[in-house]
Specification:
- By secondary structure, this protein is mostly helical.
- The chain contains 13 helices and 4 strands.
- α2 packs across α4 and α8 packs across α10.
- It is globular and about 65 Å long.
Length: 293
């Protein structure tokens, strides 16, 4: 079978499982099987569902529900191997933890934070690095200047970058969440000319919900970050369509597009209904009149 070449940005339509670099390069995981590394990547991908569904225990720890059958289906293996791989991740490498819920209920599966754990334990050997040099060479992720793609490309090209900061993992989880919640691939098809704007919105959402600030400036007012985050997490594709329409209809000069977009995103859940209601009245020729009959 012949496969065609990629053209332009066509590779963007693919989805990927992200295998942490440390699983490949760190001496600590040299004896881990390739299938176990793949399964860990699959379970990491499932963690985005825990954010979407609010799956957290009373301590705020996120978990997923992934049965043996789902493991078998996800990596196409037999039951015996699925059980063996889960045991390998849990018992040998402590990268997951399973907790029973009771008779007839599936186990809760906690996927452990690999990089945060390695950093906290000061693991001594990554290639030729000592714990002292590693601590000094952890990559710094700037909060401004440059896109997230540029940041990731820079860390990928670094020989010293064998631990990604926890912030990057969090950003990627939220990026996946918003791509699904906003149905970004469908919006791209409906608004091909606005693809750049769509991804600017995506990155702005990720940057905002992962901000370390306690208060964020919205519409000239300081609002608690958790309030802003809660509002943004309610957005769906209809809100983004509304925002694209607002951008097209706006005839005034926007001095700070980032602040404008953030304010529009924040207000979208409470303004979208009135916007479309006004459009319906206008299209039907009602104007501001009330039909007394």
């Amino acid at each position: 079978m012949e496969y065609p070449y990629f053209k332009g940005l066509e590779a963007d339509r693919y989805s990927f499982y992200r295998v942490p670099k440390a699983l490949v390069k760190a001496d600590l995981f040299q004896k881990m099987s390739g299938d176990a590394k793949l399964l860990y990547a699959v379970l990491l991908d499932r963690m985005s569902l825990s954010i979407k569904n609010g799956w957290q225990d009373k301590h705020g720890n996120a978990y997923i529900i992934c049965t043996i059958e789902e493991v078998m289906d996800s990596i196409h293996c037999a039951r015996q191997k699925a059980v063996k791989l889960l045991d390998e991740l849990e018992q040998e490498f402590r990268l997951i933890e399973r907790r029973r819920q009771g008779l007839g209920k599936p186990n809760l599966l906690y996927v452990k934070d690999l990089y945060a754990g390695l950093s906290q334990s000061n693991y001594l050997k990554y290639g030729n690095h000592t714990s002292k040099s590693l601590k000094n060479e952890l990559p710094v992720v700037p909060k401004s200047n440059g896109s997230n793609t540029e940041k990731i490309n820079k860390t990928d090209s670094s020989e010293t970058d064998l631990i990604y900061p926890a912030e990057l993992q969090e950003e990627e989880q939220y990026r996946r969440y918003f791509k699904e919640a906003l149905e970004l691939e469908i919006l791209e098809q409906g608004y091909p000319a606005d693809k750049t704007v769509l991804y600017e919105i995506l990155e702005l959402l990720v940057e905002t919900v992962t901000s370390r600030k306690k208060f964020l400036r919205i519409c000239g007012e300081e609002k608690p970050k958790e309030v802003v985050k809660s509002r943004l997490m309610k957005l769906d594709s209809s809100h983004i369509q509304y925002i694209l329409e607002c951008l097209k209809e706006n005839s005034t000069q926007i001095r700070n597009i980032k602040q404008y977009l953030l304010a529009t995103l924040y207000n979208a859940p409470v303004t979208v209904d009135s916007y479309y209601s006004a459009q319906v009245r206008h299209d039907m020729g009602w104007g501001g009149r009330v039909d007394k009959n």
